[in-house]
Specification:
Blueprint (H helix, E strand, L loop, with lengths): L1 H4 L22 H18 L5 H10 L9 H11 L3 E5 L5 H9 L2 E5 L16 H8 L6 H20 L2 H13 L2 E4 L2 E4 L2 H4 L2 H9 L4 E4 L2 H5 L11 E5 L2 H7 L5 H9 L14 E3 L6
Parallel strand pairs: 1-2, 3-6, 5-6
Antiparallel strand pairs: 3-4, 5-7
Helix pairs in contact: 5-7, 7-8, 7-12
Bound molecules: fe (ii) ion.
């Protein structure tokens, strides 16, 4: 399926699943699609994205002018937080993904969606990966969290906790919200790279917005085919980093005894910031 939407040719894959981005072979139309997406999100995210994201975008020099060259971004990232971007052809196996993160390498896809897919694409493309994920890697605390996540992933694989840990990534890195003195803000890349969900996640009455609780998050299933029914809200990246600092081994043992919760569930023990009306 991916071949159909890759206009520029991707060179062969290496053992760690990395490829060359092939930046020189992007077409004018592919750069133009980036521009369209960028300009659209720029308008929507003012006052909605967290300050750390906006600062990262600016610090990286990621702009409307076209799909960025990963080599240039890696130079800036390396100097700031010691991260770099590696190009991959699509989703990579979990162990490869964790290994990259644990070594401060962020795997990014290279292809960009077509104009027919501007509003929704189920798999990650370069706009999601670079625009959505990479700016926060400029933030030292978030950068440390991502490395710790990668190391946790390597461990979880051995401990049988991968499905629990995947939910943590989903509800933070991909779909996280943050409470700030200025109001609720977005930091999850799945939201930041989506026009519709940028508004839905903050303003729609339908979804629940619950205070972040590590065990609660790791107990909760998520939806991959629609906007989220529940968002978990952190107070700061420091809170997130500290909550996920301890050894997860006893957590996985505890979680094995608990039922999985459906995405729309609200428990009496939840810290409810907003109880959703649901979409029924
Ligand atoms: Fe992502």
């Amino acid at each position: 399926m991916m071949d159909a939407i890759v206009a520029h040719r991707e060179p062969s894959t290496r053992a760690d699943f990395t490829i060359d981005q092939g930046w020189d072979s992007y077409t004018d139309e592919e750069h133009a699609i980036w521009r369209t997406l960028f300009e659209r999100q720029e308008k929507i995210l003012a006052g909605r994205a967290c300050d750390e994201f906006m600062a990262g975008l600016e610090g990286l020099g990621v702009a409307a002018d076209g799909i960025p060259d990963f080599r240039r971004l890696s130079d800036v990232l390396m100097k700031t937080t010691g991260w770099q971007i590696v190009a991959v052809p699509g989703l990579v196996p979990d162990d490869i993904f964790f290994e990259h993160l644990a070594n401060r390498r962020f795997p990014s896809t290279c292809f960009i969606r077509t104009r027919a897919q501007l509003d929704y694409l189920q798999e990650p493309d370069v706009f999601h990966d670079i625009y959505g994920h990479v700016p926060l890697l400029m933030n030292p605390v978030f950068a440390d969290y991502m490395e710790a996540y990668g190391k946790g992933g390597v461990k979880a694989t051995k401990l049988g906790g991968l499905h629990n840990l995947a939910r943590l990534y989903w509800y933070t890195v991909e779909f996280g919200l943050m409470r700030t003195p200025a109001g609720m803000r977005i930091y999850g890349s799945g939201i930041l790279s989506s026009k519709g969900e940028s508004i839905f996640s903050l303003e729609d009455p339908a979804p629940n917005r619950l205070g972040f609780d590590l065990m609660r998050v790791m107990q909760t299933n998520y939806r991959i085919d629609d906007y989220q029914e529940t968002y978990f809200v952190i107070d700061s990246f420091e809170q997130l980093f500290e909550a996920t600092g301890p050894d997860f081994t006893p957590y996985y043992q505890d979680l094995a005894e608990r039922p999985n919760l459906e995405p729309g569930t609200v428990l009496a023990t939840d810290r409810v910031l907003h109880r959703g009306t649901g979409r029924g």
